[in-house]
Amino acid sequence: MFQKIFRGMCAAAVPCVVLGMVLIVTGCAPEAAAEYAENTVVADGGAGDATLAAAIAAAPTIKVYKSPTCGCCALWVDHMREAGFELDVEDTLDMVGVKMDAGVPLQLQTCHTALVGDYVFEGHIPAEVIARFLAEAPAARGLAVPDMPIGSPGMEFGDRVDPYDVIQFDAEGNTSVYERR
Question: Model-level pTM?
Answer without folding.
Answer: 0.74
